[in-house]
């Protein structure tokens, strides 16, 4: 099956996009979005209007694994990355050095989550449900040390039925554990040094996931259709598996059944960190 692009992203106007998280995955995503921006404009598209939300600052432990350099230490991650793209491409992207909470409202047609806790992911979902002006895309990245997943789904307003045949299920509907704050993971949270960070995550797992996720997003923006909306990556085994646009596959994870069934079923996902 194929999924055709939501009309909110298919207009002639610049696509409003929010990136939540500017760390190991987010810094790679923002760099990739700069490439997407340049390519879209070259093809006559209005491009992207990106806002980066992250209240964290660059630490010495971030240099080497995240897309930061020694001169960036002590500065806002969001501001460093946005300024770099604006100076290079002449864009007018924005940085918001704040922590996103469930009380925020995200009405943007495209939100990209690059967060490292289940609570943060839950907050993104609630902010999208409360702020959505219509179906919006949520591109979610999550990883363990050597493996992870990227899933593109659609989020509707909190009071609307979500199990619609034409809707792409988002990561929380397929793998509810990734947004369950009751699940305790000792590896969640920041690292004190680069060596500590590398014990938790392979040096290139973030880049590998971003390459697949951004290729998928580019295909949707460029051609207006995709036939898969997620990718599972394992650098240890060298295996990569796609998540097809297929209700029969979604049903195996519990999507389309009762909420009770959704909560109990489904493949156990890779840890949703970034």
Share of helix, binned: 25-40%
Q: Mind describing the biggest β-sheet? A: 8 strands, mixed
The total count of strands amounts to 10
N-to-C series of helices and strands: EEHEHEEHEEHHHEEEHH
Could you name the CATH homologous superfamily?
NAD(P)-binding Rossmann-like Domain
Mean pLDDT: 87
Structural class: alpha/beta
- In total, the number of domains comes to 1
The first-level CATH class name: Alpha Beta
Identify low-pLDDT runs.
259-274
What Rg do the Cα atoms give? Answer: 18 Å
- The largest sheet has its strands arranged as 4-3-2-5-6-7-9-10
Tell me which oligomeric state these chains represent.
Answer: single chain
Task: Could you tell me the CATH topology label.
Answer: Rossmann fold
What's the overall geometry?
globular
Reported CATH architecture: 3-Layer(aba) Sandwich
Content of β-strand: 15-25%
What's the helix and strand layout?
Blueprint: E1 3-4, E2 15-20, H1 26-42, E3 48-53, H2 77-89, E4 94-96, E5 110-113, H3 118-131, E6 136-143, E7 147-155, H4 171-174, H5 194-200, H6 205-223, E8 225-226, E9 228-234, E10 239-244, H7 247-252, H8 259-264
Parallel strand pairs: 2-3, 2-5, 3-4, 5-6
Antiparallel strand pairs: 1-8, 6-7, 7-9, 9-10
Describe the structure.
This protein is α/β, with parallel strands linked by helices and 274 residues long. It has an 8-stranded mixed β-sheet with strand order 4-3-2-5-6-7-9-10. It has a two-stranded antiparallel sheet with strand order 1-8. The chain has a single domain (3-264), classed as NAD(P)-binding Rossmann-like Domain (Rossmann fold). The two termini are 29 Å apart. The protein is globular and about 50 Å long. The model is unreliable at 259-274 (pLDDT under 50). The protein has helices spanning 26-42, 77-89, 118-131, 171-174, 194-200, 205-223, 247-252, 259-264; strands spanning 3-4, 15-20, 48-53, 94-96, 110-113, 136-143, 147-155, 225-226, 228-234, 239-244.
């Amino acid at each position: 099956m194929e999924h055709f692009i939501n009309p909110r992203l298919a207009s002639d106007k610049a696509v409003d996009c929010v990136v939540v998280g500017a760390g190991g995955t987010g810094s790679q995503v923002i760099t990739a979005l700069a490439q997407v921006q340049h390519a879209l404009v070259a093809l006559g598209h209005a491009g992207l209007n990106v806002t980066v939300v992250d209240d964290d600052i660059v630490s010495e432990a971030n240099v080497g694994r995240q897309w930061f350099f020694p001169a960036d230490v002590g500065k806002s991650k969001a501001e460093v990355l946005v300024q770099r793209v604006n100076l290079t491409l002449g864009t007018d992207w924005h940085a918001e050095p704040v922590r996103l909470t469930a009380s925020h409202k995200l009405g943007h047609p495209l939100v990209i989550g690059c967060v490292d806790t289940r609570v943060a992911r839950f907050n993104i979902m609630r902010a999208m449900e409360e702020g959505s002006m219509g179906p919006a895309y949520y591109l979610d990245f999550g990883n363990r040390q050597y493996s992870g997943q990227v899933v593109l789904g659609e989020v509707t307003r909190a009071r609307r039925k979500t199990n619609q045949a034409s809707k792409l299920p988002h990561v929380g509907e397929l793998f509810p554990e990734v947004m369950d704050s009751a699940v305790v993971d000792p590896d969640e949270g920041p690292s004190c040094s680069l060596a500590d960070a590398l014990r938790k995550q392979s040096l290139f797992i973030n880049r590998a996931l971003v390459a697949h996720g951004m290729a998928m997003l580019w295909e949707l923006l460029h051609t207006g259709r995709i036939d898969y909306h997620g990718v599972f990556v394992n650098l240890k085994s060298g295996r990569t598996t796609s998540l097809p646009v297929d209700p029969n596959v979604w049903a195996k994870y519990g999507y389309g059944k009762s909420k009770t069934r959704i909560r109990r079923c489904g493949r156990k996902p890779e840890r949703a960190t970034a």
